[in-house]
Design goal:
Blueprint (H helix, E strand, L loop, with lengths): L6 H6 L3 H7 L5 H10 L9 E5 L5 H7 L6 E5 L3 H9 L5 E4 L15 E3 L10 H10 L14 E15 L1 H9 L2 H4 L3 H15 L12 E14 L10
Parallel strand pairs: 1-2, 1-4, 2-3
Antiparallel strand pairs: 5-6
Amino acid sequence: MAPKTADPATKGFAKASLYDTHRPSYPPEVVDDLLSQLQVKGIKNALIIDLGAGTGKFSQLLATRDEDYDIVAVEPHEEMRKACMAKKLDRVKVVDGVANDMPVETQSADAVIVAQAWHWFATEESLEEIYRVSSNPFTIQAADPLFSLPLGEDSAEFVDWLRPEAIWDRFRSLSQITILEGEELASVEDKISAAMNAPDIEKNDKGELPLHRRVIYAWTSSIPGASLKSGG
């Protein structure tokens, strides 16, 4: 049987607490706009699937909103799932599942959101499963033009001011860096440290550096009554 998660994800996200502590969250205005585009803003008790939920960073944002969403956090990585469950978020059900096999009833979800995870399972099988579970399917980050009409996209730019050690901790939360050890890890740290200590790097009076971020988010709706295999 094939593993549930890709090998880099299995190894890279083994330190779930590192990921949860240092991975950035999402600006409130981005979350608000996305939910508006998904037509679930202001909808009480809407059922939202957080697919590839990880440690629940996006589920946590949903759980604090006034809509009292019912949230299903689908995550295959055991350590990430445990970290999400440990938060004991209101109205969040954490389940073991993958993008092409979700333990969710057919046409039960008002929206499906994928935050920083679509690249792990960008396949037609995943889109078929999203179509199955959703009464009005949407994804964040990516979509297939054969699957949707219309497709919308937006972005937001902002800056985090962080100490150099905090910036390194954020880089270390990336799976491709987390799996490194010894000289390989030291080499990457040296390169990042050199970049942060370059003479032209801006710093504030606290010794913090600007870390520029851009959130790109997209939304889509299914073609009613048509599956992916029906043509297109």
